[in-house]
């Protein structure tokens, strides 16, 4: 398996030498400055690739091997194949990547909001901080800040009572922080930052779109792009929903084994694959991660390895250290390695240590939420150790 590192570019505070020092050889990046829906050009991709791969004398070679992500515009999710202009632009971006020999593309199909957290610096027992999804604080936003029509039906009376009490005790800055965390697009998001009025307008545009219809729109998108991807030798990897359940009354359709099975059956092209994210899928207790990895092994080209801890209410969770929490990382890696050993080196599974605790010197710095250098460095080192041990056992 090839060790990768997500890099947000030269202004993100993490240098390419930092990536090398972490032990990674592959880079996961994207052209975040290009507006959502606008086609990436070959020249733009080449400029980023040159920045990553132009190696100073004596330094370890890095390779931009995965793009995460080409954003799928909102129109595609709402309209499916009817969003012809947006799908054409997406294909042009993929072609620009292939022309630069970047052949793994990650994407997601989450409507309105991308990955979602209520707290970006939840203090753990070690004094490091982690990201957290607090179901009650989410209800505060949904019921009292966003004031979504019909939201009450999605929460128990106990949740509604707790949310009311929490909201009444919050100050203006706490309300602003919660709103920013949920509505303003977290790093790497493929959805746009939203004001509260714009958020309501986006939700209204999805009225009448249920899980069946949203899945059909994803299938229509895949029917348009996978033949091109297959001809280009590109592997498309669908990232799971995060969290893997409905938010704001909107359907989410990449949350379970059954969800992925339906998509692979509908579009069986070899280009139609998955980004196996243990953190996102692991939030659901009914997702058997080793079983999912084993069933879809040939479809896994890119993986995010992280762990989450499900909290007592069954809906809240926080990011755990990579070898802790509710993910059986050793067993998951055993399944991934078994598949990887069958492949030629050029098609090896690419993985990155996803997210990480904010710790040590990073506690005193402005860091990208979810992507502090030291926490991810620790995670990558731990994952590398497990991989070495499992390889040694397999060769014994």
Automatic annotation (TrEMBL):
N-terminal signal peptide: none
Record's keyword terms, sorted: Iron, Lyase, Manganese
EC id: 4.2.1.8
The reaction(s) this protein catalyses: D-mannonate = 2-dehydro-3-deoxy-D-gluconate + H2O
Cofactor (UniProt): Fe(2+); Mn(2+)
Alphabetized GO MF terms: ferrous iron binding; manganese ion binding; mannonate dehydratase activity
Role of this protein: Catalyzes the dehydration of D-mannonate.
Name used for this protein in its record: Mannonate dehydratase
Lineage: Bacteria, Pseudomonadati, Pseudomonadota, Alphaproteobacteria, Hyphomicrobiales
